Amino acid sequence: MNDSGGASPSPKPNWLKGKGLGPQVKWAIGTDGALTTLAFARESGDLFMADESGTISKIDRHGQIVMLNHVHDAIFALGWSDDGRFGAAIAGDDVVLRFDSDLKTIHTINLPDVGLAVAISPFGNHIAVAMSNGRNVFYNERKRRIAQFETIRPLAFLKFCPSEPIVFGVAEHGLICCHNLSGAEIWQEKNWSNVGGIQITGDGDLVYLASFGHGVEAFDGDGASIGSYILDGTVNRIAVSYEPQRLIASTVEGKLIWLDADGELLWSTTVDDKIVDLVCDPLGEWAIVGFQNKGVYRLDWGGV
To answer: What domains can you pick out in the chain, each with its CATH number?
Structure first.
């Protein structure tokens, strides 16, 4: 972590130039160990990051670390409520942690199998957990199991819809689905590509997948395919604004790409460290890029 324990003064890495309308670096911040995951609270504007040292950090809008906590095992899956009050994480293989806004652990849940993905509802009332045996469980705020459902393939990624009580899930290959909080299936579709991430718009009308060689695939809220953006490289991470105005994607080959709603390229560059996670501003004016070893950067196109 940098000496100040907060944001460094607007670094200008070489990869910032790129091609197209480049951003400014609003702030950058380091980690104690290799970054494992990011989570963003849309309404409060707080960013949460975890690294291999077992450190979880809360970062405000200005890039300053305002809270720190250390857990026994490294966190590799993390979700945060939109209002910023509660978070959920998978630590180690089979422990779910529920946090408050000060990063204090409220309770833990021991899973019966290896946890793969975790998501938390917009107000933090429900947690969804996907396990390697194909079982997916909903817990309430008192860690009571309230529903479950099973899928043929284990779900590697989960996302709650911000505006409806439903959750979207996708396996690494072969499956994308939507379920309500009772565990009932709303729809399920086959997917013919490998997937590195899922993102949805604020109303749940659009679902985007980072589909490696198939680019960015888009589905409507009912699971019907509506097309794809074929990009230069093998897409493995994506993030989208609340309204589908901007999308940021990364590739296995080290490309970082900023797109508009029609999939038109606005800016692209090549980076020299693995991108672990991406966040897109709800209004589509800025993005956060989390590198495995070189820290976390906020990139601004909106001039604020």
So the answer is: 34-191 (2.130.10.10)
DSSP conformation class of 41: -
Residue 254's region, left for phi above 0, alpha for psi from -120 to 50, else beta, is left
d(CA 248, CA 260): 9
252 in helix, strand or coil? coil
Instruction: Let me know the angle formed at the C-alpha of 14 by 13 and 18, rounded to the nearest 5 degrees.
Output: 115
Q: Which of 271, 274, 261 is nearest to 299 (CA)?
A: 271
The full length of the chain comes to 304
3-state secondary structure 202-244: CCCCEEEEECECCCEEEEECCCCEEEEECCCCCEEEEEECCCC
**Cβ–Cβ under 8 Å, residues 106 and 99:** yes
CA nearest neighbour of 124 among 153, 93, 87: 87
d(CA 253, CA 234) in angstroms, rounded, equals: 7
Classified as helix, coil or strand, 151 is coil
Residue pointed to by tokens 């008192």: 142
Residues 66-94 pLDDT 10s:
999 999 999 999 999 999 999 999 999 99
| pLDDT given for residue 302 in this prediction | 80
In a 13 Å sphere around the CA of 217, the CA atoms on its Cβ side amount to 23
In three-state secondary structure terms, 188 is strand
Residue 259 has pLDDT above 80, yes or no: yes
Residue whose structure tokens are 């495995």 = 292
Q: Could you report the per-residue pLDDT of 191-239, keeping only the tens digit for each?
A: 989 999 999 999 999 999 999 999 999 999 999 999 999 999 999 999 9
**What would the two tokens of residue 49 be?**
């990051």
Phi/psi at 95 (5° precision)? -125, 125
